[in-house]
Amino acid sequence: MTASFDLDAYLRRIGHSGPVAPDLATLQALVFGHACAIPFENLDPLLGRAPRLDPDSLQRKLVAGGRGGYCFEQNLLLRLALRAIGFRVTAHAARVLWGQPEDHVGARSHALLRVDLDDGPRIVDVGFGGQTLTGVLRLEPGIEQPTPHEPFRLLPAGGGFTLQTRVGEEWRSMYRFDLQEQWPVDYEASNWYLATHPASHFVTGLTVARSQPGSRHALGDANYAVHRLTGGTERRTLADVDEMKAVLAEVFGLALPESPELDRALARAVAASATPR
To answer: Per the residue annotation, which of 16, 125, 149, 217 is the catalytic one?
Structure first.
């Protein structure tokens, strides 16, 4: 799988110019660099396209093409890079709890990775949108773990774990997962559903996010927010398609896809943000 992976191109894409080795320091640097450089985005589903998850397509889109992607694309790309360096990486799946009751049981619609180091396993996840992990977590429940952004913690949940993040003074659950190994083919059904089902939120609305040192940027339809780690959030609604394109390119660093549908999709996002809910 890694024979055709262009590790040098990936490292340039995430701005990593130092040495790499299958160790914790490299893992931390790659996770932070990836999360800051490659934005979370769902433009393909919004345009009626299902993202392709094979290694060549991931590299063509997220590395060479200057695009971002959602969880399957992001974490499968990181998995390719880590394996090329020599890390032992296992893919897993999670049931999302964000915005849901704690007892919610949804599909296994989210991807994450376990990386086994000599001193124990770590959890990494560069594909959870506005709360994407910018750090590396020990697979150890019950302790608060700092990252370059918010603190996180794992809680035991049956035979698995619940990942939580602290937002202000509140702990909020992100997802529940276990350690059953997943293969790329296991993600295909969820990928197809999320990218094509008319009720999927990735089909019906725009979601873009990018982490930066000291801040997180988020775009939901035309509602743009900057969350500062020092406290406070700046919000504004983008006025039109031209402003949407400018923010996507200049703030999120996206090379916009060439599609006659793009302007219409962004216009729908502007209209959705202007409609009272």
So the answer is: 125
Number of domains in the chain: 1
Residue-wise pLDDT tens digits, 151-199: 999 999 988 999 999 988 899 999 999 999 998 889 999 999 999 999 9
What's the CA gap between 124 and 79, in Å, rounded? Answer: 10
Residue 56 lies in a domain: no
Helix (H) or strand (E) holding 141: none
Which of 16, 110, 217, 227 is labelled catalytic? Answer: 110
| 141 domain residue, yes or no | no
104 is catalytic: no
Q: Is 251 part of any domain?
A: yes
Catalytic-residue membership of 227: no
Q: What are phi and psi of 90, to 5 degrees?
A: -125, 135
Q: Give the tokens for residue 60.
A: 């063509």
Instruction: State the helix-helix crossing angle for 71-85 and 184-196, rounded to 10 degrees.
Output: 160
Q: Is 219 exposed, middle or buried (0-12, 13-18, 19+ CB in 10 A)?
A: buried
Is 125 noted as a catalytic residue in this protein?
yes
User: Residue 213 belongs to what domain range?
Assistant: 197-272
